[in-house]
UniProtKB/TrEMBL annotation:
Protein name stated in the entry: Gcv operon activator
HTH lysR-type domain location: 9-66
PROSITE patterns linked to this entry: HTH_LYSR
Source organism, top-level taxon: Bacteria
InterPro entries in the cross-refs: LysR-type_TF_proteobact-type, LysR_HTH_N, LysR_subst-bd, WH-like_DNA-bd_sf, WH_DNA-bd_sf
Length: 302
């Protein structure tokens, strides 16, 4: 590393070379860089002299890369791209005034939405963008996601994860459904109810089969056309709120709905799955003021 200055050509020459190679034209490169064609020619000649080999074969209307030129272009493009991306991320973090947060549909709708609005009221200078989806892409530097709330074990390479709350599964239904179809005094009593089915959102997602098994109750999942299966957790919970059946709900995710009385808990022994909901961020991404502030706000709201 001590010999970088000696071994790496002039940055001006490398930038001129990259533009000329990309356009295959010195004039177009000069126009992009806002310099003269003579200046581009000079930088490339200086680069070729320093490397001791030609980088282009020149004809009247175009230029083509030599083998050495192609090898250098690959390295220069890769290196300049990384520098540009790092500069963008650092600049964005230092500005720190716009924050993109990703979460799945249920967490966004039942848990995060109100907290996000309250944070923005207290921090009017910070813009919030909420992205909803069952899978986030925060590991990808180009995703634009600053923070994500992710369900799982908390072990994701390249991510720093802080537990927000444990996953606790419990059967829930509307007070009206319970009054019309109850009581349900034992776990086995739920087999006679209309159980709202959800397609597993991940391999470790708890299902009715798993819940009954934990209660030592045999259960055969009904098959179409005897049942309706949802692939959206919020829609399934809204069906339960509307009195259409019993759903497996995440106790911490729907705490507000339970407190408001729109759903009631039907089991006094909720199941702790061993998983949780974590606030995650990329390890190698700079922390902006807004990102740090929002993370503290969420933890304080628990």
């Amino acid at each position: 590393m001590r010999n970088l200055r000696k071994n790496i050509p002039s940055p001006k020459a490398l930038i001129a070379f990259e533009a000329a190679a990309r356009h295959q034209n010195f004039t177009a490169a000069a126009e992009e860089l806002l310099i003269t064609q003579a200046a581009v020619t000079y930088q490339i000649q200086k680069l070729e002299q320093g490397l001791g080999t030609a980088l282009f074969t020149r004809s009247h209307r175009r230029i083509d890369l030599t083998w050495a030129g192609e090898r250098l272009l690959s390295a220069v493009s890769h290196g300049l791209g990384h520098i540009a991306e790092a500069a963008y991320q650092i600049r964005k973090a230092s500005e720190g005034r716009t924050l993109t947060v990703a979460a799945n549909g249920a967490v966004s709708f039942y848990w995060l939405r109100e907290r996000a609005l309250n944070f923005q009221i207290e921090n009017p200078g910070v813009g919030l963008r909420l992205m909803t989806g069952e899978q986030d892409d925060i590991e990808n530097p180009g995703s634009g996601i600053d923070l994500a709330i992710r369900h799982g074990s908390g072990d994701w390479p390249g991510l720093e994860a802080s537990l927000l709350f444990d996953e606790v599964a419990v059967p829930v239904c509307s007070p009206d459904y319970l009054a019309r179809n109850g009581p349900f005094n034992q776990p086995a009593d739920l087999k006679k109810a209309r159980l709202l089915q959800l397609e597993p959102l991940s391999p470790d997602w708890i299902t009715w089969e798993a819940w009954f098994s934990l209660r030592s109750v045999e259960y055969d999942r009904p098959q179409p056309p005897e049942t309706v299966t949802f692939n959206s957790y919020p829609i399934l919970l809204e069906a339960a709120i509307a009195g259409q059946g019993i759903a497996l709900g995440g106790l911490n995710v729907i705490a507000t709905v339970l407190k408001e009385g729109r759903l009631v808990q039907m089991d006094d022994q909720p199941h702790h799955t061993g998983l949780g909901y974590y606030l995650v961020q990329a390890v190698n991404k700079p922390r902006g003021e807004a990102s740090v502030g929002f993370a503290k706000f969420l933890v304080a709201s628990l």
